[in-house]
């Protein structure tokens, strides 16, 4: 968050892989560097109340003034390239600087491998920066398939610090779809989930792999192994939202199999009898019952045991489930009430669907 | 999500365009500036020390940020100043304080951000992009000055960014994201130029980003995320295509974003953030399922994120404030019908009276 930036941290004088002489020259204000003596900086027109430069932003203001000068002159030179690096060091969010940098890279026919290195240098401090990721994408598109392995490695590095980084996942999916590299992806998902079974991004990637990996055969071929994997994961942490949703997703167009698979009802029974948070188990049972599933005595007992006082006159177990959920998931009491009021139409529809097959 | 994601996404709030059907059922109200706030919060008094909205402080905070651009945060946001202007001005309007701003100067500066291509940049001298184009249109809408624009020119810029598969690129550099679908659709709707694009393909692309949990991601197969969901739902609402949404399934995913503190997160197992009070909430309102969350707990969470001394709202309690989260907090409270605030449209993210002015005349 910008608000939390420690003022001392802003003056990042990063360098894009140049030697130490260059480094020293870079520390001088631009107005004192001989190679810039022919350029007059251009100030920003910042609207009704323009920015007032103060001490710690003077260097940045100067760099941006010179940037504007080369940008307006459309100067696509080496010194302009270095200048964009300095500007990016100060503020990686300035998209106009990144875009001009690309124009310069093209004009100079620059080494894109080096540029990948430049992006990597900035990645850890700017891992959630749209401009950085789009710049990377642009580079990789130009480089083609040879870049695939490197990109999978690059995103893995990002995930070491933040395994849910949305940009990195978007980039990784794009790389897989356009450049390949699927072979180890499901195994990588397993790794991530071992580290953090709550990682919703990894669960999403699982679904992405089993549906898009050209060699796996789609959901039909992987269904059994995925169901087993998911059930195991649920039993490890039953309060984990992701695998419950994933399970539903696996059976999305296959409700009959879902309802009749004994492993699913056994799972719910296990969760209910182990006295952990039963919310997701109960809500899944509700969905199953709405689709024609008829719980046996053990299951009914386990349900009623969650809150013994709640079942009273209800012979309809789904009404009991809703009543329990209204109590134990109070924040969503209106949702559970709505489910209760819609039970009969849901059940009728569900049973009808069942018989059609 | 990061500040960066938020700042870009926050520019997407625009409008609601769906012909005669109204998504937001409240009538536009003017805040009663004479009544003290303490008289109006009885609905929210749970006897828990609920707290009040420090409206005056927040208005002052925004006006100060606008005037005093000498802190590093402001300097670093120079390239998206027009987004900041949209957040600040819309917040002021919701608080009934838009008149405190010099309309002429703001508008002439906004117009100076326009590029020869018709698109707008984040500030003068910056490259054009859909995100900033939407903010420009929204700001002009606030002041009832959309006619300042060469509508043909802006619409053409936007329409050239649609791709064959219906998706939209943010600018000529080609980044594709459902955020841009929303921005384009919203912008054109406000300009009444939706026919400039292939709406059917645009909708098709958005629907292709629907996931098994009922949510939407930035591209097909990407993880469901509340911010992206807002964009997709808003765009589908504006184009009259909400029938593609499984409202019950998505509604349940959205209401599961509410965590113990009463705040909302953007994805399972992430921290709550005030900005999600907007994205999750507006999505729920659009699909008519907002009663599935605990509204009062959410109000309390937002109020707890205020800096009541200096003004402004932060992402979560006790963090530093910024204009972005101030906007989302106030807009979220408006959606929750907190007293004294102007009604805001959940899909267009502009006050309802502004939308009415555009579509009912």
TrEMBL record, chain A:
What is the protein named?
A: Uncharacterized protein
The top of its lineage is: Eukaryota, Viridiplantae, Streptophyta, Embryophyta, Tracheophyta
TrEMBL record, chain B:
What is the top-level taxon of the source organism?
Answer: Eukaryota
Name assigned to this protein: Uncharacterized protein
